[in-house]
Amino acid sequence: MPAGQKLKSLRNRRNITVREVEQASRRIADVKGDKRFCLSNGWLAQLENGDSEPSIWKLFSLSVIYHANLLDLLLLYNIDVNDKEKYESVADPYLTQLISQNGNGSTSHEQLSTSLTTSPSSDDCPNHIIYGHLGLAEFTMYPMIRPGAHLTIDTSQNKVVMNVWRNEYERPVYFIELRGAYACGWCELQGSQLLIIPHHSSPASVRRFTYPREAEIVGRVVGYSTNCVDVSVNI
């Protein structure tokens, strides 16, 4: 059902006319001292017919008048405030960051759609498994893990393990939380210093942070999807 018709259904459920909605919204606008909260009966008719869309101020008034949750009304227009974190990697794909999961275990990042279709649902996924997006500016593990990769992270493995691998593919890769940022790479502990070690073919340099004040291990990267060649991305 279109959003306008759903709003009309809410009005009918309250058994009030468009004129009564206008009068109620005018009282709200008067108390607010802001005429943007007011809805004319003609505009409301257009809204219910799908010929207009509401501003946040008018939607607030409707939520009050219809005794409806404002967040539910936003959903009528395909705005889910719970999607905020999922779209952060879309808004700034150059940053390495964690990806929020929705109810069916998928995310909104279109560039990762193929890999995400194979991700387990939130019901099947262990609580210690989370997901991350490797930013387009992150070359620490290049070319083994290329920028834009989708990462599967095991938060139960959040301690640096040393010298127990036979090759670079067995060497643990960690997802690291910095102050205001994230990183991904091999790690070494030297006293109170955490070193993020780049792949030997990467153009990146070793980075040092005071551990754990400046850097903490979120978990070990236990899976990743990455392109096998460099792909140009239009932003």
Can you walk me through this structure?
- It is a single chain.
- With 235 residues, the chain is of the alpha+beta class.
- The protein has two domains: 3-76, lambda repressor-like DNA-binding domains (434 Repressor (Amino-terminal Domain), Orthogonal Bundle), CATH 1.10.260; 84-225, Umud Fragment, subunit A (Ribbon), CATH 2.10.109.10.
- It contains seven helices and eight strands; from the N terminus they run ααααααβαβββββββ.
- It has helices spanning 3-14, 18-32, 41-48, 56-65, 70-76, 88-91, 113-116; strands spanning 97-99, 129-133, 150-154, 174-178, 181-190, 193-197, 207-210, 215-225.
- Strands 1-2-3-8-4-5-6-7 form an eight-stranded antiparallel beta sheet, with no helix packed on it.
- A hairpin with a 2-residue loop joins strand 4 (174-178) and strand 5.
- Helix 2 (18-32) packs across helix 3 (41-48) and helix 2 (18-32) crosses helix 4.
- It is elongated, with a radius of gyration of 25 Å.
